[in-house]
Design goal:
The chain has 364 residues and is α+β, with helices and mostly antiparallel strands. It is built from 10 helices and 17 strands. It has 2 domains: 200 residues, Endonuclease, Chain A; 145 residues, At1g16640 B3 domain (Beta Barrel), CATH 2.40.330.30. α2 packs parallel to α4.
Length: 364
């Protein structure tokens, strides 16, 4: 058994998201139960290319809770996902015990020679998978222990057949409708006398600590310049990737109004030509400018998890950020400028950036 601590203050810390993907790769079937689920948590894990590759040849049975946090949006996303991934089945654990909360967080994956069991504190939310302090253990089981665990799982499923409801069950939808975004107030949807709802799932106030930032010019590279190239220093020391090692970063674009785009779950790519790149959804389909260079400004909100704003030369804020680069590095026609800095310095130079319009924290 190996114990891991997911630590948002440690860029190199393991994250539950990546570890689950590691152990599901090559599995033939699996199952799991998670208390709280969000739309973005579903997209982050279940729509990852590694999980989708597993589910095309295997099966996965997912049981989720709806006592708190899990809302209609999460259920709808799960419905859509299960329709598109036939090997995935999802049920909701629905009960009427007011003093109890469905609270497990674990999953297992059966391989031809054994099994991996992942047990920990993280929910199927972006915070639980990447953004919170969480602890989890991975146990590698030989065939006898794996068979015994599967038997125990089936026995538990049979015991609670009546409580395992479909995603579109009327009672389930009514319960999920209570789980609206009132978490800032700290009010759980159900309030038993000894409630232990998870305050870590609340929307936080604006943080005061410094966040690391990268301001980087994006090269033309090719017609697909949205596969943005970075230097080795940025690739390793900012994004936390390593050449030759598959690491995932999660990106989320911020538009001019401060609205957040969809999560971009990107594997790191390094090639022999010493190109180190990540795909930027915000650049997809845009022609590379004939004059000037695009600038991407990234802010780290959790280990290997970033928000960014892509500025094209015709953006009114481009000149502000370009001037910031000028104060640090002279322009060179044959070299991209990239600066690793922090929120304090960038906010002074660019106080009205859309990046500051939302708390710099993982939201769901």
């Amino acid at each position: 058994m190996q114990l891991y601590v997911q630590d948002p203050a440690d860029q190199q810390a393991p994250v539950l998201h990546e570890k689950i993907l590691e152990v599901c790769d090559g599995a033939i079937r699996g199952a799991g139960a998670f208390a709280f689920v969000t739309r973005d948590g579903v997209d982050l894990l279940l729509r990852d290319e590694v999980f989708e590759r597993f589910i095309t040849r295997g099966t996965f049975q997912l049981i989720i809770g709806v006592d708190q946090v899990t809302n209609i949006q999460a259920l709808t996303t799960l419905q859509d996902t299960s329709r598109e991934l036939p090997g995935l089945t999802v049920n909701v654990f629905y009960h009427d015990l007011p003093q109890s909360v469905f609270h497990p967080k674990f999953c297992w994956f059966k391989h031809r020679t054994g099994m991996f069991l992942v047990v920990g504190s993280g929910n199927l939310t972006v915070r639980g998978l990447r953004g919170n302090w969480e602890a989890f253990a991975i146990c590698e089981l030989e065939m006898d222990a794996a068979d015994a665990l599967e038997t125990q799982w089936r026995r538990w499923i049979d015991m609670h057949t009546e409580r395992l409801r479909p995603l579109d069950d009327e009672d389930v939808l009514a319960r999920a409708a209570l789980n609206v975004r009132q978490r800032r107030l700290g009010i759980p949807a159900r309030a038993p006398e000894e409630e232990e709802y998870e305050a870590v799932e609340e929307i936080p106030d604006e943080p005061t600590q410094l966040r690391r930032m990268l301001v980087a010019e994006i090269p033309r590279a090719s017609s697909r310049w949205n596969q943005a190239n970075f230097d080795l220093n940025s690739f390793c020391n900012f994004f936390g990737a390593q050449p030759g090692v598959l690491r995932r970063v999660v990106l989320q674009h911020v538009d001019a109004s401060g609205s957040l785009g969809s999560l971009e779950n990107r594997p790191s790519v390094s090639v022999r030509s010493r190109n180190f790149r990540f795909e930027l959804e915000a650049a997809a389909g845009l022609p590379y400018p004939s004059t000037g260079r695009p600038i991407a400004v990234f802010v780290e909100i959790a280990p290997r998890t970033f928000r960014y704003r892509l500025l094209m030369p015709n953006d009114p804020h481009h000149s502000i950020v370009n001037s910031f680069l000028d104060t640090r590095l002279p322009f060179r026609s044959n070299r991209m400028r990239r600066i690793i800095t922090d929120t304090d310095e960038v906010q002074r130079a660019w106080p009205d950036s859309p990046l500051w319009l939302r708390p710099l924290e993982v939201e769901e």
